[in-house]
Amino acid sequence: MEHLEVIKYIGAGLMAIGLGGAAVGIGLIFNGAAAGVARNPAAQDKIFKTALIGAVFAELMGLFAFVGIFILLFI
Amino acid sequence: MSKHESPLHQFEIQPMQKLELGGYDISFTNSSLVMVIALAAVLVFLIAGMRKKAMVPGRWQAMSEMSYNFVAGLIKENIGPEGKVFFPLIFTLFMFILFANLLGMFSFVPHGYAVTSQIIVTFALAIVVFLTVTIYGFVKHGLHFFSLFAPSGVPMWIMPFIVPIEMVSFLARPISLSIRLAAAMTAGHVLLEVIAGFIVTFITALGIGWGFAAGALPLGMLVLLIGLEIFICFLQAYIFALLASIYLHDAVHLH
Question: Is residue B2 part of a domain?
């Protein structure tokens, strides 16, 4: 295909939309965490640890999109 | 700037000492050098820290003991008392990944390299965890280990759907474990390199006076991002050790 390079760049740009999902996910997790700490300030350590674990899983989805972008652009 | 390097240039492996074994290229690269330095750094941190063996620890001994207690608490919380046999594995993984991540922050020095950004390095670490979980599960529980794929309290007619899904999710564990670490490190370092490139671009395009003034903004952002990157180094090492403990809990207790 003669337009392969162009389509690859367009695809990489479209894949960047997936990173918005990761950002929203992390925001939702810390929304719940902040509400939990507001209700029960003594549990802040446990809530923070749980929020951190959840944020890593949500971040992983965004990083899948990021890795896909690099595969498209540089392979 | 005559040559315009891509942000991925920092991830190129350069052989330092060419070796060959039966047609395979096993040269000693800058990646191998940083792994050896990480190992030496962990050994120095722990052995020199515990040299005094004081009852009331000084600063270095307190840091070594803190890292030990941190991983011991992690294992006790997630696996329970039977998990003590796994302490060397989890402690080694945690300390090596932590020091390798932190040494990767120095990838701007000559021969510096971020080893945990390579998918093959993180895959090797993840496959060690996966094989430990699987082999220990089979040794301890025999064929009853397969009950891991059939969670209790599920009606029989839904089992043909649940079991393949659980098996796929079990096999996806080493993949997700390795990609999480590699992608986080790669993304962080590429972001740092891109923003640092902005500073250089500003200075070369606007000259000394205006270039320095305009370059202060990306410089401030770079300082904050380096702080975030150091936090992510600790966080990714903690998450790797935590997930390894959770998978071992599944193997030891079968849900």
Answer: no
